[in-house]
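Field reference: sequence -> structure
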Amino acid sequence: MALPKFISEEIEVKFADKPGLPQSFIWRGKEYKISEIKGVQRFVDFRKPWWRRRHRDYFLVKTEAGETFEIYFHRGPGRQYWVLFKAYQEEPQGNNESPF
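Structure field:
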C-alpha cells in the first residue's frame, strides 16, 4: 500500500444522500472527490463506561486524483465530527497491503 502520514485534522464531508457514504471532503480549503471507498471499519472503545465511549467509523478512501486517505466519523459521545486521520504516500517497493 503506502506509508502513512499522520494528519488528525477536522474536515468537512459532503454526501450525495444522507445517510450514506461520503462523496468528497474539504481539507485546508481544497475539495477532494472520493472515487472509491477501499475499506470500512467500526471502532468502539469498550475500556470506558458506556457514556464516555468513543465510537468511530473509519473509511479508507481513494480520490479522483489517485490519493489515498483514511478518514473517520466520530459519532459520540458529545459533538459529532469528521477527521482526516492519515494520508498515504506511495512506497518505493510498491507494497499493496491494506491497513484494513
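Note: Residues 2-90 form one domain.
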